[in-house]
Amino acid sequence: MRILVTGGAGYVGSFAVRALSSAGHDVLVVDDLRQGHAASIPEIRLVEAEFGDRPRMEALLREHQAEAVMHFAGSTSVAESVRDPGLHYRNNTAGTIAMLEAMRDVGVRKLVFSSTAAVYGESAESPLSETARYAPTCAYGRSKLAIEWALADFAAAHGFSSCALRYFNAAGASEDGAFGEDHDPETHLIPIVFGAALGKRAHIEIYGDDYDTPDGTCVRDYVHVEDLAAAHVLAIEACDTPGQHRAFNVGSGTGSSVREVIETVGRIAARAVPTQSGARRPGDPATLVASAERLHTELGWVPKRDLEAIIASAWRWHQANPDGYGS
User: Fold this and answer.
1) Could you tell me the pTM of the whole model?
2) Sign of CA dihedral 116, 129, 4, 9
3) Is the per-residue pLDDT at 151 higher than 90?
4) Which pLDDT score is estimated for 26?
5) Of 78-82, 109-113, 296-300, 306-310, where does mean pLDDT reach its minimum?
6) Closest by alpha carbon to 20, among 34, 39, 49, 41?
7) Whether the Cβ atoms of residue 249 and residue 290 lie closer than 8 Å to each other
8) Cα(228)–Cα(298) distance, rounded to whole angstroms?
């Protein structure tokens, strides 16, 4: 299949691009490189462009003779979305609508969308199924949910076939340590903890230690980025019913607290990780754990790596690439 991938030089996108290529798909990456790294996809064609530039996207879709789109590009920081909600609505919602209209006009109607567990917000249900109530607590989650609704409408009105994959916490690196996570600034817990273990940070700030969880810190569901990439390959190959939009959770089904992650990093790295407790961060639910039963039942996806394996792979990446892709 000829697939255009937006944000394909980013963390999750680059792993999905390599998985798509390995599965025999012909991939064109569109990325503005503000957050992505060309070095993460060394053998894949990359065009530096904005996914929300409708005329440019139409031209690229035609040039590549694309049959499908995989959409990763957008703003992803919860804290940033609280400070600057307009940025997330412009990038995630308005930009994606422009891209969908470009797809419609060119005649490309297959799409896999990078969504998020943030669409659920606070919920008493755990693990969370796809039928849980939507109650996003920040602009990031709301901007992503707005696109899920738009995809359902585009399916009904224009015959799109689409899947939204609701990630929980993507983490880890390739087994050989060659590819991994490199953000500036870094906002994800595991690489931040490694930064403290390696002496790049004075300590780890724990944002809230008084949540209603076993040790008082937030609980999250970590899924290895290569397992997540495999889910994207299955999803794009299953987008074959015009007029159908589906949503799938992608998570391990197991929750790990912030303190458990810190302890596991310290054990695997054999280094002390200094911590400091701080105030809760606005927009952070206490617990987010997935039920991925629908993804398993309908597409056959099963995660292969647990938290220990995720952190061990990330440690190999950080050891080999202390300055990320600039090493």
Assistant:
1) 0.95
2) positive
3) yes
4) 98
5) 78-82
6) 41
7) yes
8) 16
Residue 235 vs residues 49, 55, 269, 320: alpha-carbon distances, Å: 25, 27, 35, 32
Instruction: Give the burial string for 57-77 (b: 16+ CB within 10 Å, else e).
Output: bbebbeebebbbbbbbbbbbb
How far out from the chain centre does Cα 294 lie?
Answer: 18
Work out the average pLDDT over 167-191: 93
pLDDT value of position 76 = 85
Catalytic residues: 140
Longest dimension (CA), the chain: 56
